[in-house]
Amino acid sequence: MRNSADGLFERFLRAVGWLAAAVVLLVLATLDVAVNGVQPLVVLLAIAVAVVMPRLEAATLGTGALLLGAFLVLVALTMPAVGYGIVVPFGFTVAVVGLVLIGLAAWRAEPVRAGFAVPLLLAGLVLLPTRLGNARAAVVLALVIALGGVIASAAGLYLRMFQTNRHRQMVAAQQAQRTGIASDLHDYVAHHVTGMVVLAQAAQTVAASKPQAVLPALERIEAAGDEAMTAIRRMVTLLREPDAHARLSPPGTIADIAALAGHFTSDSGLRVRLSIEGEAEAVPIDVQSAVHRVVMESLTNVRKHAGDARTLDILVRCHVRPAAVTVEVSNDGRGGGGHSPDGGYGLKGLHERTVALGGSFTAGPKVPEGWTVQAHIPTRGA
Fold first, then answer.
1. What is the 3-state secondary structure of 288-346?
2. What is the pLDDT of residues 328-344, one digit of tens each?
């Protein structure tokens, strides 16, 4: 509803702008024809240029402005001097439309064509008053038009730079979105798929000795597969509709870590010791989500690389002074649970996410054996 209202207001402003421009052109045309004695055909041609030029594409606009600039220079150099009128036979309308066209070309025209068109247009407009018989009036008018041309050029260049910077920001935002999607693909989908692989391996192991344990394992595999497919569907939706407010998953919180640990224990049989200290509810949601990601990725790595681990410790401390959260996940497996050999996004993505929040991230072997992942994230100002 808000987007519809914004679009309606934008169309209203555009209509008001066109109406104001039409009124200005009508007043200028009336002055030129009634007072300055400018031929009506010349005024109509200037109005036609004002109507058509803003609708042209960048390349066509640049070519049109270049041709008009060359025409004005040619006319100014070949037109005989006159001793009456203001800018006879062109008048106010041509001067104002020319200045607007200078700003439009500097803003929207193809850069190379604009580089030639803007100086030509300005030169043609400045040279026109020199055809007046009154030298003093010609100099004053030429200076006024030159000043207007400089202002119009500066305004057009400012709009071009603003548009370019906005485009760069949009590209950077799209790249950040792609990186985020890659990270979400690893953190969410790989988490479920790894669990499915572990459960399938466990089911194969116990199939002969404990057939009754196979069915629960298959049910958990099915549930993990459904969750992975849901995440993939949301990711595809996000890729197809960049403006849609779709998320791969709601942001995890510190309170959700208990469920993660419970699922991990039931799937792997590994004993998990979880400790959460402090008031987790007071921690900002983006920090809680980062802590949740650290734990989830650590559990995924343990499944992949530390199959011989016996215990897993998860410690979350919510500090008051200084305001920060520390999360530490360690295991006693000889396989470690560290970097994925395929160079995935896991630990690298966690490091980038933690640093972006002003924190620190470390991952490495633990003495005498095992692996530890630790992140420290400030909460003040988060």
1. HHHHHHHHHHHHHHHHHHCCCCCEEEEEEEEECCCCEEEEEEEECCCCCCCCCCCCCCH
2. 998 887 655 554 444 44
